[in-house]
Design goal:
heterodimer, A: about 600 residues, alpha/beta, Glutaredoxin, Rossmann fold, Ubiquitin-like (UB roll), 5 domains, five-stranded mixed sheet, four-stranded mixed sheet, B: about 150 residues, mainly alpha, 2 domains, three-stranded mixed sheet, 6 helices, 3 strands
Chain lengths: ~600, ~150
C-alpha cells in the first residue's frame, strides 16, 4: 500500500459536478504532477461537503482538516503552490462560518427591492466605518459642497418622497414649509415612536443602519436651516436607543455632527429622547409635547409643526424610514427614485409581515406591488395550507382587507379607498381561524386604552364601541348594535382631535363592511363562525376518538372534566371556562368545539 | 393607573442614603436639560424601579415645578410605576401578531402556574406579570420579555 502525506477530498455531488468538480480534480492532479507532489498528495472524490447550492465544488484537505470552498480550475495552481508546496493555508478559499439565519430579514425574493434596508444585516451598526464604506455620508458631503439648502429641498420634492409614517404627506413640501419660516431656532425631529402593533421596520433600521437616519437628519437640518435635532424613540426599543447613541457619538468624533460639519459653516447636533410607553406620542404634536417633558397630548393643528413646533419653534418632523431614504435619493438622484413605484407613490416601502404567513419578517417592495404578491410571492403563502381570510394593514388605525381585494396594488391612495391606511407599514395576515369581530374588539381595546383622554369623541366614543363589541363577543349582542356601531364610528371619525381618534373606528368600519355576516352570526344566531369567542362556543368530548387517557382531565384548570380511565370523558359546561387547554393537550383530536 | 399619594408601606427611596444619592445624581445631571422631566423620570424608573409619590414630590421641589405637573406626567405614561414590582418582570406582548399567534393562551398558562393575574405580583415578590404593547418582535410571535 502506498502512503500519502496528504489527502484531498473533492465533492462530486450533482451540483458540484455542474460547477466543474471533475475539471477541478483534473487540474489538481496536473498541478500536483508538475510540482512533483503527485506521490505525496492523493486526490479523492467524495459526496457533498458543505452547502452545494451556494458554492462551487468544495474540498477537504487532511490531515489538517481544512475546508476550501467556491473553487474554480483557475484557482488550482495558486492553491497547490500555497498549500502543498509552501504549507500555507489559503484564507481566500476557506469555508466561512455559516451565517446565522436572520429571523427578520430573509434573502430578498424577486419581487422585493431593498433601498432603505440595503445595509441592514450587512454592515456592523456599531461601526461608522462600515457605513462609510457603503457610500455612507457621501450624500452629506455632496450637499454641503455643491448644494444650496433650496436645491436640497428641490431634490426631495422632485423625488416624490412621501412621509413613511403613514399619512404620506410629500416630504419635500414639509421641508419647504419649515425652510420658509423665518426664525433663528428650528428643530429637526425623527419620529421613532413606532407604536403600531405589528410594525417593526423602524426598529430594524435604527438597530441595523443607524447612520442612514443620522445622515438623513443632518441633510434635513441643512435644508431647513436647523441646528438641533431630536430622535424620539419609544422605551420598548432599548437596543435601538443604545445603537443610535453609539452612532451619534461616532459621528461626532468624526466631525459629522457638531460645529462646522466637514469644514462647512453648517453646525448641527442630535440627541435621543426616550418615550415611556404612550402610543399617542407617535402623533407629531403629542410627540413634541413629550420631548418638552409634558404629558403626550396632541393639540389642534394648525399651527402645524413647520410653523410652530417644538418649544414653539418651526420644526420638521419625519419618520425613521423617511430620513433613512434621504441619503440615497441625494446620491442617486431624484429622477432615479421617482422612476420606482406608482404615479402618486414613489419609491419603495418597507413592510413588517406577520401573522399566519409562512415567511414572517421585514420586506421592502416598490409601491404598486399587489397584496397577492406580498402574501404569496414574498410571504410564501398561508401557514399550514389554510385559507387567507383578511389582510390587516396600518396597525390599529388601519383596516381589514378581505380576499376579494387581494389584487389591489398597494399605495397610499388604494389603501384609503378600501377604508384602510398605509400606516407605518405593518401587514398582518389572518387565516380562516380568525374571528373578525374579535379582532375589531382587540383593536378597539387597544385604542380605547391608548386614547389620551383629551377629546371627548375619542375618550368616550371608543369606550362605548368597546363595550358593544365585548357584549357581542360574549354572546349578548342585541338587535341594533350594528347600526349603533356605524353611527358611533362616523361620529368619532368626524370629531376627534388627532389621527388616533380619527383612525380608531377603521377596524370596526372595515370589518362591518367586509365581514358583516360574522357580526350577524354573533348577534342573531349566537354563533362565532371562527370558533374563537368564548361566550359563543362550547367544548365537548367526542365519543369515538376519546380513549379515556385522562390527560384532559388532569390539565383542566377548573376540573370541569370527569370520567373513568379508558372511558369516554365528559366536560361540564357550567364549570368549563373555555380556555381551550383540553383541545391543545388531547392527542386524539377528541375535543370538539361548537 | 390609580395612585394613592399617601401611605405606601415600604421604605421610601428619598429616605434611604444610597438610593437618595442615585436620585440626586440623576437630578443634578438633567435639571437644566430642556424637557428634562421625561429624561429624569425615565432614569428614575430604570435605576430605582419605580417613582413613588414622595419621589415625585422630591423631583418637583428640586426642579421648582408643581407636583401636579410631575404626577401628571408619571400617570400619563404606562412605563412609570408608582409602587415596586417583583424582582422578575414577565411581560407578555399583546401586539396584533402575538395576539393572533396565541399570546392569550400563554398568559392563561402563566396565570395558572403563578396564581396571579396580569398586573399583579406573586406574594413572595418574585414575579410580576405585565402585559405590554407591541415589542416589535412580530416575526417571532408570540413574544414575551423576562427582565432582571
Amino acid at each position: 500500500m502506498k502512503f500519502f502525506r496528504s489527502h484531498v477530498l473533492v465533492s462530486v455531488d450533482p451540483k458540484s459536478l455542474e460547477r466543474g468538480a471533475h475539471e477541478v480534480i483534473d487540474a489538481l492532479n496536473d498541478e500536483l504532477y508538475s510540482q512533483g507532489l503527485i506521490d505525496e498528495v492523493q486526490v479523492l472524490e467524495t459526496s457533498r461537503i458543505g452547502d452545494p447550492l451556494r458554492y462551487g465544488p468544495d474540498m477537504m484537505v487532511y490531515p489538517e482538516g481544512v475546508h476550501y470552498t467556491n473553487l474554480s480550475i483557475d484557482d488550482v495552481p495558486f492553491l497547490v503552490q500555497e498549500h502543498f508546496l509552501k504549507g500555507r493555508i489559503v484564507e481566500k478559499f476557506l469555508e466561512k462560518e455559516e451565517k446565522v439565519q436572520d429571523e427578520e430579514l430573509g434573502t430578498p425574493t424577486p419581487k422585493e427591492l431593498r433601498i432603505v434596508l440595503r445595509n441592514c444585516g450587512k454592515i456592523d451598526p456599531n461601526n461608522i466605518e462600515d457605513y462609510i464604506s457603503e457610500e455612507g455620508y457621501l450624500a452629506l458631503g455632496k450637499i454641503l459642497a455643491d448644494y444650496t439648502p433650496e436645491e436640497v429641498v428641490q431634490v426631495i420634492l422632485d423625488s416624490g418622497l412621501r412621509g413613511r409614517g403613514g399619512a404620506g404627506f410629500p416630504t419635500g413640501k414639509k421641508w419647504q414649509f419649515a425652510r420658509v419660516s423665518q426664525t433663528k431656532t428650528k428643530y429637526v425631529i425623527c419620529n421613532a415612536d413606532e407604536g403600531d402593533p405589528g410594525a417593526f421596520m423602524n426598529r430594524r433600521i435604527l438597530e441595523s443602519d443607524p447612520h442612514s437616519v443620522v445622515e438623513g437628519m443632518i441633510i434635513a437640518g441643512y435644508a431647513i436651516g436647523a441646528s438641533m435635532g431630536y430622535i424620539y424613540c419609544r422605551a420598548e426599543y432599548p437596543l435601538a436607543v443604545k445603537t443610535m447613541n453609539i452612532a451619534i457619538q461616532q459621528a461626532r468624533e468624526l466631525g459629522l455632527l457638531g460645529k462646522n460639519i466637514l469644514g462647512s459653516s453648517f453646525s448641527f447636533d442630535l440627541e435621543v429622547r426616550m418615550g415611556a410607553g404612550a402610543f399617542v406620542c407617535g402623533e407629531e404634536t403629542a410627540l413634541m409635547a413629550s420631548i418638552e417633558g409634558s404629558r403626550g397630548e396632541p393639540r389642534p393643528r394648525p399651527p402645524f409643526p413647520a410653523v410652530k413646533g417644538l418649544w414653539g419653534q418651526p420644526s420638521n418632523i419625519n419618520n425613521v424610514e423617511t430620513y433613512a431614504t434621504v441619503p440615497i435619493i441625494v446620491l442617486k438622484g431624484a429622477k432615479w427614485y421617482a422612476s420606482i413605484g406608482t404615479e402618486k407613490s414613489k419609491g419603495t416601502k418597507t413592510f413588517a409581515l406577520a401573522g399566519d404567513v409562512v415567511n414572517t419578517g421585514l420586506i421592502e417592495v416598490p409601491f404598486g406591488t399587489t397584496l397577492r404578491e406580498i402574501v404569496y410571492d414574498v410571504g410564501g403563502g398561508i401557514k399550514d395550507g389554510k385559507q387567507l381570510k383578511a389582510v390587516q394593514t396600518g396597525g390599529p388605525m388601519g383596516g381589514c382587507i378581505p380576499t376579494e381585494y387581494i389584487d389591489t396594488p398597494v399605495d397610499y391612495e388604494t389603501l384609503s379607498e378600501l377604508g384602510s391606511i398605509m400606516g407605518s407599514g405593518g401587514i398582518i395576515i389572518m387565516d380562516e381561524d380568525t374571528c373578525m369581530v374579535d379582532i375589531a374588539r382587540f383593536f378597539m381595546e387597544f385604542t380605547q386604552d391608548e386614547s389620551c383622554g383629551k377629546c371627548v369623541p375619542c375618550r368616550i366614543g371608543t369606550r362605548r364601541i368597546l363595550e358593544i363589541l365585548t357584549r357581542i363577543c360574549d354572546g349578548n349582542g342585541r338587535d341594533g348594535d350594528i347600526e349603533t356601531l356605524e353611527f358611533l364610528s362616523q361620529q368619532i371619525k368626524a370629531d376627534s382631535l388627532c389621527g388616533l381618534g380619527q383612525g380608531a373606528p377603521n377596524p370596526v368600519e372595515t370589518t362591518l363592511k367586509y365581514f358583516r355576516d360574522e357580526y350577524v352570526a354573533h348577534i342573531y344566531d349566537k354563533k362565532c363562525p371562527a370558533k374563537v369567542c368564548k361566550g359563543l362556543i362550547t367544548f365537548s368530548i367526542l365519543d369515538g376518538p376519546c380513549t379515556g387517557c385522562t390527560v384532559c382531565a388532569r390539565n383542566c384548570p377548573v376540573n370541569a372534566i370527569s370520567g373513568e380511565r379508558r372511558q369516554t370523558h365528559a366536560i361540564d359546561p357550567d364549570i368549563c371556562i373555555r380556555c381551550g387547554i383540553c383541545a391543545q393537550v388531547c392527542n386524539f383530536n377528541a375535543i370538539s368545539i361548537n | 393607573m390609580a395612585v394613592s399619594i399617601t401611605g405606601q408601606g415600604f421604605i421610601d427611596p428619598t429616605q434611604e442614603p444610597m438610593q437618595k444619592e442615585i436620585i440626586d445624581d440623576i437630578l443634578a445631571r438633567n435639571a437644566t436639560l430642556p424637557g428634562g422631566l421625561m429624561v429624569i423620570l425615565n432614569e428614575l424608573q430604570n435605576e430605582i424601579g419605580y417613582v413613588s409619590a414622595t419621589m415625585q414630590q422630591y423631583v418637583a421641589t428640586k426642579l421648582r415645578i408643581p407636583i401636579s405637573k410631575v404626577h401628571g406626567v408619571v400617570s400619563f405614561y404606562s412605563f412609570f410605576t408608582t409602587t415596586p414590582r417583583g424582582r422578575h418582570i414577565l411581560k407578555f406582548c399583546m401586539g396584533t401578531a402575538c395576539y393572533v399567534g396565541g399570546a392569550p393562551q400563554l398568559i392563561e398558562k402563566a396565570r395558572q402556574v403563578l396564581g396571579i393575574d396580569p398586573g399583579e405580583t406573586t406574594p413572595d415578590g418574585a414575579v410580576t406579570i405585565e402585559l405590554c404593547r407591541c415589542d416589535g418582535a412580530c416575526s417571532q410571535a408570540p413574544g414575551s420579555d423576562c427582565r432582571r
